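At your convenience, could you comment on the folded chain following this short note?
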Amino acid sequence: MSDDRASHWETIYRTKTEDQVSWFQQTPEPSLTLLELAGATPDAVIVDIGAGASHLVDVLIGRGFDDVTVLDLSQAALDADHTRLGPDASRVTWIRSDVTDWQPERNYDIWHDRAAFHFLTDAVDQAAYAAVLKRAVKAGGHAIIGTFAPDGPEKCSGLPIVRHDADSIGKLLGGSFELIDTRRHEHRTPWDSVQLFQFSTFRKQG
């Protein structure tokens, strides 16, 4: 785990409430729509990468999904999720890790990442992320990746980011992943500004 990266996010989640960060969503769209597009059913094995204090896990558990993993490098973010979910937290697998260092012990039907990948500005980290994703997603499974769009913000949470489109992500994933959907999304922050995102969904062939 990158110590600097972990320290930054630990500070963010220890000093701010969930609605004091720009990426807060009360309802996790378009993630829910894209999970449906990927054919997610309650028995799907799902991992939410860099979830932070996202409410996606709440919705999935509420809809009867019983095999959801939440990964984040901030223990404070995971603790906030635990507290919010209450007794339902025991139904979730929690992993504290930097995704670039993670060693998946199983395969997943769906890899979901809303706004984690674009913080990886170094080519080595991007390649490590792609390598982990390729190991983690089973054949026929899907990867949903949301990043700032090419005309979106250049920084977030005081950090530089790399803006992406479906082509740049597809090149990292390689020929074994087929693009099945790409779309723009206008995210409205808690202070009513708009951030332009793009979401790309890929299917692993084989």
Summary: Helices lie at 3-15, 31-37, 56-62, 75-85, 123-136, 166-173. The longest helix spans residues 123-136. The mean pLDDT is 95. The beta strands are 46-49, 68-72, 92-96, 108-114, 137-148, 155-156, 159-160, 177-188, 194-204.
